[in-house]
Specification:
The chain is an alpha/beta fold. The strands form four sheets. The protein has a six-stranded mixed beta sheet. Strands 7, 8, 9, 12, 15 and 16 form a six-stranded mixed beta sheet that branches. A hairpin with a 2-residue loop joins strand 13 and strand 14. The longest helix is centred in the C-terminal third of the chain and has 17 residues. The relative contact order is 0.17.
Length: 241
Amino acid sequence: MITLGEIAIMGGGCYGRFYLGQLHRAWHRGAVRWDRLRVVDHDASCAAAAMIEGAPATELTCTTWVDFLEMWLDPAERGAADRLVPTPLMPHLFADWLTDRARRQWPSHTARRIAVEQPIGTPFDMLHPGDGNRYVSHADWICPIHCIEPARCPKIRAPRSWEMRDTVAAWNARRDEGPAELAIFACRHVVYGVGMVEVTAILSAADDLDARLESEDVAEMVIGSVSSCHGAVGLLRVSRS
């Protein structure tokens, strides 16, 4: 049995409802236990809300994702067993949180996101003109909606020869501007088709950024939220004003 601490599902729409249902099935079949399971959505009438009552150690938290992460990602409260369940269509929340935190933590500095201009080189590789993030995928096909990304790809029916974490790390190492501090948040399948990100990885990235800024006037961080096949990559620059 898998034992977890606090789990946060980001969003109570169709994806959040699916993940919640899968986790409840896993609980009732003895595959997983948690201390607390939160569904985070600004809408009290979201699709997942009807599944909350009577569910094991489960609650709906009605707030925005940004406000929730600001409250929830507290090093004094979070531990190694805590997990975050992202949804496929959410924005690059971890990059947004690190940017907002840098502004709070380093008020004498300027923290801003820089467009990720240099291609990463995957089959799908797009710079978003609005947020400046680069959205990438090793797939040039439509993937099964809830694929757990096994070693043998179910789409091509052959071994999967790629790993997005390694792809982003290799791209960072050869960046035209030189390597930046690298923060990769990997969503990995945990149980019953639900992928999760380790919360301690997000907090460690914040500590790494702080350590860099304590000795340098400028710090850049490449921030990747990735699964094995897909990812969103952002670039944060913090400089002394």
